[in-house]
Design brief:
The chain is an all-beta fold. Helices cover 0% and strands 48% of the residues.
């Protein structure tokens, strides 16, 4: 089990950038696949992106491909989500998630992730 704490959310204008961070506890961070999900008002939570434990694999939802970048620093037990060219439709609560997994296959289903943060709000105004 790891504990996840997201930060970096806020209110920005369309076209702006934000970087979200997810700090984790525990000494086994490097053994986890880390993902970001988001939930917009009135919608189900959806996959955004994830990165394997070794950083060799990443995967992005089509809606964010080319605009968002996931990265991780295993020495700092932190995963990041750099969001550029933000759009109003990116408005959502963003959740960090962790899956104990040393493989390179990226899972996009919520049920595959065992640990979740509390979420951070991102609001993009037009």
């Amino acid at each position: 089990q790891v504990q996840l704490v997201e930060s970096g959310g806020g209110l920005v204008q369309a076209g702006d950038s934000l970087r979200l961070s997810c700090a984790t506890s525990g000494r086994t961070f490097s053994s986890y696949t880390m993902g970001w999900f988001r939930q917009a008002p009135g919608k189900e939570r959806e996959f955004v992106t994830a990165i394997s434990w070794s950083t060799s694999s990443t995967f992005y939802a089509d809606a964010v491909k080319g605009r968002f970048t996931i990265s991780r620093d295993n020495a700092k037990n932190t995963v990041y989500l750099q969001m550029n060219s933000l759009k109003p439709e990116d408005t959502a609560v963003y959740y960090c998630a962790a899956r104990a997994d040393t493989g390179v296959l990226i899972h996009t289903e919520e049920i595959r992730y065992d640990n979740w943060g509390q979420g951070t709000q991102v609001t993009v105004s037009s």
